[in-house]
Amino acid sequence: MPQQRVYHEYVNEKLIPYWYVLTFKSFEINWDKPIHYFDVIKPFEYFERDQFDESIITFSLYKTDFLLNADFPNKLGINLKSIKKRLTVEGIDPQIVHQFIVPIPDVDEVLNLIPNKRKINFNVEIL
């Protein structure tokens, strides 16, 4: 599961999110699959923008890269097929990318996709 952080700035004494960042361990993403689902952890840790680690190879995501699936109610999916295609066009090997960043203006819309409450499904067998 990726480390999930929201980087922010204070503007007029208000906390404004600038980036939603997913940091993965090496080989945590199986690029042979079309979609990678991960558990959403909320509330997020908030960090100031100057705490962002620029040494990690990072690639930008768009709101259209995120997928919701009713079969996985507590998970968010990222469209690896689309992302891999963009990486290939840029000449970047997907295996070296360990961090995804969602910049402004998409950050608000992506954060709104994330449920505020976790759902638990129970299967009950009636005899």
Name the descriptors:
2 helices, single chain, 5-stranded mixed β-sheet, 3-stranded antiparallel β-sheet, globular, alpha/beta, 127 residues
Can you characterise this structure?
With 127 residues, the chain is an alpha/beta fold. It has one domain (3-113). The protein contains two helices and eight strands; from the N terminus they run βββββββαβα. Strand 6 (66-67) and strand 7 (75-79) form a beta hairpin. The longest helix is centred in the middle third of the chain and has 10 residues, at 80-89. The radius of gyration is 16 Å and the shape is globular. Residues 118-122 have low confidence and may be disordered.
Sequence-ordered SSE layout with sheet pairings:
Blueprint: E1 3-11, E2 14-23, E3 35-39, E4 45-48, E5 58-60, E6 66-67, E7 75-79, H1 80-89, E8 99-102, H2 106-113
Parallel strand pairs: 1-4, 5-8
Antiparallel strand pairs: 1-2, 2-8, 3-7, 6-7
